[in-house]
C-alpha cells in the first residue's frame, strides 16, 4: 500500500470549468482518495510532491492512434525485420506516454500482445483499447496490395489480414478480429488521402455489409464499431448502420452533421493528421497524384469541422498519430481551440469526453475522488496557453495508475 500527496497545485478537474486553485490531491495505490488542502498534515504519506503552483490535469486520452505505424508511405515495412518493427513501436509508446497520453484507442496495427505488455507495465506505454486491424474491402483503404505484387501489411501468426468482401465475408472478418481480442471494430468506410488504391470520397462497404459488421460486433460482446470516413457517402452509410464513432468526417454536410448530433455519434476530427498532410503536400513529400487531394481535404475539413461543431456534434481528441509523428498528440487541443472550443472545453475533449467515447468515464478522464490516478502536471496554465501543451517539455510529470512514469520536477 503506497500513498502520495501532491500539494500546492491548481487542479483542472475536467468536471465542467472547475479549476481548484492552491489545493492538494491524495493518491493511495492507483486511486485518487481526496482533493483538498492536506498539506498541513503530510506525515501520513509515503511520498510528498510539491507542485510549485503548477497545473494538474487528467491524463489525456487519444481516441485515434496507430501506435505501431511510422508513416504509411514508408517502404521500411518491406525491408525491416519484424523484431525491429516492434522495437520502433516501443519507442512510439514511450514518447506518447511522456507527451501526457495515458490511454489511447488504437485504430489499427496494435495486437493483443502490445495491449498486455502495456497493461502489465512491461513497457512504458499508454493503456490501450485495440481494434487489431481495420476491415477493408478489396482495393479499399487498408488493402495495401500494390501493383508491384507487394503487400505492405505486416503479417505474422495470430494477426489477421484486413480484406473482406460481401456480407458473409464481413461477418467472418469481424469474428476473426474479435477472436484476435479486438476491443472494438474499425472499418474503412471510405478511401483515404494517401491510399494506393482509392480516393477519400470513395464509398467502400455498403449499408448491408456495414450493418452486418455492427450487428455482429454487438452480438459478440457488445463491441462498438468505428468508421474511417472522409467522403459524404461513407458518412451517410455509417449513420444508417448506427456506428459508435466516425473518424475524420471531412466531407460531412449540415444535414448529416445534424443526424450525427441527434444520434449521439462521436466525431473524431483528427486535425493533426490533416494538418500534417497539408504540410507534406506543400513540401511535395507525397506522391504527385496525392498532392491536390491532400490540399483540398485540408481546406474542406477545417470548414466542415467548424460547421459540425456548431451543429452540436460531440467531438473528442484523436490525432491519427502513426500516419504522422508520434509524441505531438496534444497539438490536437490547439486545433480544437482554433475550431471554436474554449481552452477548458478542449481539455474535456481530450479527457472526460474521450473517456466517454471509450466508455471508460467511470474510471478515468477527470480528477475526482475514486477515479484512477492518471494525471499530468504541467507548468502551463491551459486557460491562457493551450498551444504550449503540445511541447512535451512542458509536461513535467505523468502519473499512470498511481505510479510516476515521467518526472522532470
CATH 4th-level superfamily of the largest domain: Metal-dependent hydrolases
Order of helices and strands: EEEEEHHEHEHEHEHEHEHHEHHHEEE
Calculate the mean pLDDT score and round it: 94
CATH architecture of the largest domain: Alpha-Beta Barrel
- Total number of helices: 12
CATH topology of the largest domain: TIM Barrel
Q: Span between N and C termini? A: 24 Å
The CATH first-level class of the largest domain comes to: Alpha Beta
Shape descriptor: globular
Q: Beta-strand percentage?
A: 15-25%
Radius of gyration: 21 Å
Instruction: Report on the biggest sheet.
Output: 7 strands, mixed
- What's the domain count? 2
DSSP summary, beta strand count: 15
Structural class based on helices, strands and sheet pairing:
alpha/beta
| Portion of residues within helices | 25-40%
Q: How would you write the strand order of the largest sheet?
A: 3-2-1-4-13-14-15
Q: Low-confidence parts lasting 5 or more residues at pLDDT below 50?
A: none
Protein name: Imidazolonepropionase
GO molecular function: imidazolonepropionase activity
InterPro entries: Amidohydro-rel, Metal-dep_hydrolase_composite, Metal_Hydrolase, Metallo-dep_Hydrolase, OTAase-like
Domain Amidohydrolase-related: 55-405
